[in-house]
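Example with several molecule types.
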Amino acid sequence: MRVIIIGAGEVGFHIAQRLAVENKEVVVIDKSAEALRKVAETSDVQTIQGSGSSPEVLNDAGIENADIFLAVTDSDEINLIACFFANMLNEKVTKLARIRSGMYTNYQHLLTGEGAGITKIINPDEEVVNSVLRLMSVPGAVEINEFANGKIRLIGINLPEDSPVVGTQLIHLRDKIGEELGIVIAALVRDDELIIPSGLDVIKKDDVVYFVCDIRDQDEILKRLAISAEPVREVLIIGGGNIGFKLAKALDNKFYHTRLLENRQKRCEFLSERLDRPIVLMGDSTDQEILREENIQGMDMVIAVTGDEETNILSCLLAKSLGAKSTVTRVNNFGYMPLIKPIGIDYVVCPRQSAINSLLHFIRRGKIISSVSIKGEEAEALEAVAHEDSPIVGKAIKDLGFPRGCLVLCFQRGDEVIIPRGDTVVEPNDQLIIISTRHNIPKVEKVLTTKVEFF
Amino acid sequence: MRWKYVLHIIGALIACVGMTMIFPFAWGVYYSDGTATPMAISMAITIFAGGAMFGLFRDPAASKSAMTHREGMAIVALGWFAVGIFGGLPFYLGGTFETIVDCVFESLSGFSTTGSSVLTNIEAVPRGILFWRSLTHWLGGMGIIVLSLAILPFLGVGGMQLYRAEVPGPAPDKLKPRIKDTAVTLWKVYLLFSAIETVLLMFGGMDFFDALCHTFGTMATGGFSTKNTSVAAFNSSYIDYVITIFMLIAGINFSLHYLMLKWRPSVMFKDPEFRVFAGMVAAFTLVITIAVYVGGNYDSVADSVRYTSFQVAAILTTTGFATADYELWPGITQAILLFCMFVGGCAGSTGGGMKVMRIMVLLKQSYQELFRLIHPRSVTHVKMGKTVVPEDVISGVWGFFILWIGLFVLAAFIVAGTGVDVVTSFAASLACIGNIGPGIGGVGPTDNFAWLPDTAKWVLTFCMVLGRLEIYTVIILFVPEFWRK
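Resulting structure tokens for the full complex:
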């Protein structure tokens, strides 16, 4: 499979690295020789120096034989033009573009229709807003991902010490929290290492538990796991940029008390014109006076999403020290990621990571409907459909031949979510959710491609 | 530097080369010329030693993190020496040479595609051994690392570091997105040309064995022949021209051949390096033809063209086959051929020397300095065709040039120090560092290297690997900074 990536920035770099490890033919195009050298040194990819929006360069990269085309430069315009030419040169290629400006994203239908024919617009800002909203919906969760159009959730959560399931073997889990609730443990993170567990593994204190459940059972399960679900209501958003504005807009309702802090007069006016309930404040996020005035110790969540990551980190630390309950910071630089937890910030959102996630989601398309990265990039959860004529239909899970370190978490059959056992038989149109460690992905893909036909 | 990992990979390379000994072994069995046993023993020793290194130094933790630049260079440089030593085993066990230095000299002369020989009577050597001697050329021509990349799957991740260390040219291109595919493609092109040449040579009356051995010598720009008088022994103008053409083909960048085979010939004719190379071949052939014809060396124009074009191709591409003793030609012709020895083939070819592209960059850069003196405020760039050559590439080429000349002179001094006359010392070290084969003086086209003292042979052996890996990869091992943690 040939993948062409325009832009060797953080997003392009990571996607290229990921796909090269999976033995795909990757061609990276960028204007900067420096960026290309960095990619070529760390991954087995071909690099072409030039503009991704030039048809000549696209031809050099072998667009006519490409399967997937990713335009992920920092410029919306270059991404659009690149996709436009890619479409002219090879109509069949799957085209994904990273587009941020609302100017374009508000007219998605124009871009995805005829003309550019872009398969999917990836808007990292929107992804970030969605992931913040998801985090708010399950207090205490470290990571939340959705499958089957939001019907199934994969939640990663820190278990409290007094949770009844601590010390339980996984096979006895359902005895503890009730037979009627469907829950599967997908992974445990212990001492910073991700384990895909078997039934004999025991949940220990301080584990981060990733589980899959039907969204309708979610609240009940959280309650039985003794996770106190105090809803987030008091919110302070720091930074009224693109993300901050979208977030405030999403929280513009009776339930939330939102404050939006921004330090540019003009922008504040723009925001207050367009927002109804949220309070727009002008000031500096590192000014203790403002934070105290606005009752920082009463905040359920402080979300720092300015464009400057150092400001975000420092503001969150300050808010935390002044008594905010939990903090979310936006970080762009992957190098800072390992720092965030140790210094006491609760959550991190990263537009680039979000972009990578949604891009992966589409790269897997064809055999797998969606996929997301879990805990950085250590594992992936995949979603696949068993079509009627597929040979895995009628087979039991244990006979499918999946490698070790990979687990079929659940099925969605019609409206029902089924937690499978080894002898559960796959029926037509079942949607399977599978978790796998990163290096097993190609093997999983192989099982699915040879035995399942998709689309 | 993870030593275990380095030795682990080198073990794989050695075992890989050991397996190729199956071919000369098969010839030995076929001709029953007594080489089957020594070949079998050499093969067993090489595969066992390589396999043992591969197994003993296996380190599961190491394969997780990527190969560094340094490790790549250490693997390639040390790997080449190791392969050279094991490649000398058949000569030793087969009784071709008595001293170790001769075996290693001959083996590395083969792998580095130099073609300098310490054999005095080639025709007396059994065919199995001769086949191995020519096969080392063919393996070393495209490169043992490139071969390993094509067939060993586990080299994939660090492959680029190894590839760069073995194919260091000013700008190594990747033909395909994956390094493995690039290596396979290069070998396919190489194989295709080799097959065509073998068939063409057989049409000219060579037997399969001679045709194959001479093809190996040509496509790798090596120069080992199976005859004492080299290609002259066949005394056929057809064979001379076939070999001339294929020597020139081997002296051209293989990426261009690949594009040519994909029906994009315009790329080749627009390539500035190819144009200069072709121009040099044409101009030198013309001048030397006139010189030898006027000088009365040959009676007919046809003969002059035939011998001249062969010799220009043989020296410029650093193959080193001989059909004529150019030491008998007029002085100007020898001067031109001497210049050719410095230049060598195109970057990305199997040829040696400094490479046409580097000479072009140096000349253009020098001209630019002059231009700046005339127009002090001008903003200019060194360009190859229409692309600007980056500053760091230019300084890299300067560094290469200085090191190349410096090491060539140093080696000549040491050779002269062993009591060899001065012309021969310089010629021998030039012939070896440029991977050419024959030089002038005591190591001319009709002589060989057998009479040189052992010390000189060791130094020259080292020069051959230096030249083949284009200096940096080998010389870096002698820089103390390289070993610092």
